[in-house]
Write a structure and sequence with these properties.
It is globular and about 30 Å long. It is mainly alpha-helical. Helix 1 runs parallel beside helix 3 and helix 2 (25-34) packs parallel to helix 4. The protein has helices spanning 6-18, 25-34, 38-48, 52-65, 71-82.
């Protein structure tokens, strides 16, 4: 969770979301609020929206992060959230 390498951190955070490791939720939110690059952001949102609770969390985080994201990333994340079951 403390890694500065985004490549490594996204792999770890994705696994943490998949495992519903609640201790990582603040790290996921912090990363998504500080990183706007689609390559890193989209996989995390895709994993979060797989559960109802995760989708709510994704919507909450996205509402905060949206103003800082590039318009292309905004559209991609909106689509991920919209198409989630």
């Amino acid at each position: 969770t403390q890694r500065k390498n985004s490549e490594v951190l996204v792999v770890w955070l994705t696994k943490a979301i998949t495992s519903e490791y609640e201790a990582s939720y603040s790290a996921v939110e912090g990363f998504l609020l500080s990183m706007g690059r689609g390559k890193y952001v989209k996989p995390l949102f895709k994993e979060m929206v797989k559960t109802a609770a995760g989708k709510k969390r994704a919507e909450s985080i996205f509402a905060k992060a949206r103003p800082t994201y590039h318009p292309i990333v905004v559209k991609a994340v909106e689509k991920i959230i919209r198409e989630a079951k």
